[in-house]
Amino acid sequence: MIIAVDPADREPPYQQIRIQVLAAIAASTLLPSTRLPTIRQLAADLDLATNTVARAYRELEADGAIETRGRKGTFVRESKPVDAGAASTRQLKAVADA
To answer: Could you list the pLDDT tens digit for every one of the 98 residues in the chain?
Structure first.
């Protein structure tokens, strides 16, 4: 998974990560059950604070795009949650903004 954060971008880094992950899911670059990097690993790769990546993952989980399976890791969700109306709207807006 290739994610890049532009410090000059008007969007905060957590939002840039979120948008890029949502776009990759929408484009089927990230398929269901794909394991995402750990928060610490992605933070180190992007030279960001772990809290920044943790916020991006929390937002993505709230969107229904990813799920955390305890110590097994964080994965792209298999399917949309039952009440995905609000999450789908946020995902579509994020992808459109990207």
So the answer is: 789 999 999 999 999 999 999 999 999 999 999 999 999 999 999 999 999 999 999 999 999 999 999 999 999 998 654 444 555 666 667 677 76
- H-run or E-run covering 36: strand 35-36
Please name the amino acid found at residue 39. Answer: I
Question: DSSP assignment, residue 28?
Answer: T
* Residues 65 and 76 sit within 8 Å (Cβ to Cβ): yes
**CATH architecture, domain defined by 13-97:** Orthogonal Bundle (1.10)
**pTM for this structure?**
0.80
Distance in angstroms (rounded) separating the CA atoms of residues 10 and 50: 20
Domain residue extents for the chain: 13-97
Q: Are the C-beta atoms of 97 and 19 separated by less than 8 Å?
A: yes
50 and 41 Cβ atoms separated by less than 8 Å = no
Task: Pick the closest to residue 16 from 62, 53, 66 (CA basis).
Answer: 53
